[in-house]
Design goal:
463 residues; alpha/beta; Metallo-beta-lactamase, Chain A; Rossmann fold; 2 domains; seven-stranded mixed β-sheet
């Protein structure tokens, strides 16, 4: 009876994670993520699933990020009725993130349909709707770390803390066939050493096959201490300029890291001089979930017996009306808002009101993809377009490294080195430029039987 793995997503690219595991007569999807990138690349999300939906017995999800979870509503919409196993905190985050993704799909389809109708072309349907996404959450099964569970006959799932974001897991799948066991370990997305909020990544010692992410396999992150020093300089400079500070931030992970760092360095950064706004409905909801599952990380982000982060001057602005009142503030506001790459959300309104003012500062704390407004700001754009109007960029733009939620090359190599038996390792979730140097180091330093996973490649586990 075969125990095999086949690659159908995030091969030689970062997004769209999707792998098929076959254990005897059973079929399991490991991840079901959204392809993100150019419009042409995103059309792949509409392609037929690589296996008949009716033959899929279960789904296992490492964590809630949309490039790992974002096609689950479509899978369910097309008839999948089985369980979706993930950590209980990831289930809670998916319950807010997937409906939001559905809402964005509806708006994108509406916009595209209007364009097509002007050319006498038929409109398009959304990939899935907000209602579709809400309906799929009932199939999620929340698990805890270090708690083995047989999810299919002879196939046991154990989740381990990956240290990436809340609920992020390494996936350990053990197949028992007539008393012989073989184990597949999927890293999921691995956190990095010294991360502000999340606990250290769990180490495992044995596997028959390892599937490992490689997002930053070609680089080393800046030490967190240097990042703290850089942010100190930014806040000192912004205070002297007497303007506002805008921070575009991803709603899950980066936002909570920022709130923790602000509480931790409140006196050093002299934040009592500022009013801090968390102006992101999704970010507020995600932070509430971090509070609910605060037992999963040791760092103290929240006040005891409270859902409020330990920042006395933090204001969570949930409604549009509350958000609009920030527009009247010309000095002394730190505004954390989505989207993280300035592709939508409330950050655009704050850029409209502040980016042309030389006393204001924009602090970029995450990766900015090519083609996004955030990337244009990082690359030094002199002007930006918002809702058909052009705005001169006179605010000071700072790019802060060292806050990635992914491990760097050292983290990845150290994690694999914990496997004493040096199992075969296949690299996924990375571009080739990141994978090649990581592959070389794994082979040269650890004598690892390492390969780059290829699309549709099939691997026998323990065969």
């Amino acid at each position: 009876m075969a125990f095999e793995l086949q690659f159908f997503g995030a091969t030689e690219r970062v997004t769209g994670s999707l792998y098929v595991v076959r254990a005897g007569q059973r079929t399991l999807l490991l991840e079901c993520g959204l392809v993100q990138g150019t419009r042409e690349e995103e059309l792949r999300n509409r392609e037929t699933f690589p296996v008949d939906v009716a033959q899929i017995d279960a789904v296992v999800l490492s964590h809630s990020h949309i490039d790992h979870s974002g096609r689950i509503p479509r899978l369910v919409k097309e008839g999948f009725e089985g369980p979706i196993y993930t950590h209980e905190a990831s289930r809670a985050l998916c319950a807010i993130m997937l409906p939001d993704s559905g809402y964005l799909n509806e708006k994108e389809a509406e916009w595209e349909s209007r364009k097509r109708q002007r050319k006498n072309l038929p409109g398009i349907e959304p990939l899935y709707t907000q209602e579709d996404a809400e309906a799929c959450i009932g199939q999620f099964v929340g698990l805890e770390y270090e708690t083995p569970q047989e999810i299919l006959p002879g196939l046991t799932l154990t989740l381990h803390d990956a240290g990436h974001i809340l609920g992020a897991s390494m996936v350990e799948l053990t197949h028992d066939e007539s008393g012989r066991t073989h184990t597949l370990v999927f890293s999921g997305d691995l956190g990095y050493r010294g991360a502000p909020l999340m606990d250290a990544t769990k180490r495992l010692s044995r596997a028959d096959l390892v599937l490992m992410e490689s997002t930053y396999g070609d680089r080393l992150h800046r030490p967190i201490g240097e990042t703290i020093d850089e942010l100190t300089e930014v806040f000192d400079s912004a205070r002297a300029a007497q303007g506002n500070v805008l921070i575009p931030a991803f709603t899950v992970g980066r936002t909570q890291d920022l709130l923790y760092l602000m509480a931790e360095h409140f006196d050093r950064w002299r934040l009592d001089d500022w009013t801090i706004f968390l102006d992101s409905p999704m970010g507020i909801k995600a932070t509430d979930i971090y509070s609910r599952y605060r037992h999963l990380f040791a760092a103290r982000l929240f006040e005891p017996k409270s859902d409020n982060p330990e920042l006395p001057n933090l204001y969570a602005t949930r409604t549009s009306e509350e958000s609009m009142t920030i527009n009247d503030i010309e000095s002394g506001a730190i505004i954390i808002a989505g989207s993280g790459m300035c592709t939508g959300g409330r950050i655009l309104h704050h850029l409209k009101n502040n980016v042309w003012r030389p006393q204001c500062h924009v602090v970029i704390v995450g990766y900015q993809a090519i083609g996004t407004l955030g990337r244009r700001l990082v690359d030094g754009a002199e002007d930006i377009r918002l809702w058909g109007d052009t705005y001169r960029v006179r605010a000071k733009v700072h790019t802060i490294g060292g806050l990635s939620a992914h491990g760097d090359q050292d983290d990845l190599v150290d994690w694999y080195a914990s496997f004493a038996n040096r199992p075969p390792v296949y690299l996924v979730h990375g571009e080739e430029r990141a994978q090649v140097p990581l592959l070389k180091r794994l082979r040269d330093q650890l004598n690892a039987p390492a390969e780059i996973a290829r699309y549709q490649q099939k691997i026998m586990i323990g065969g």
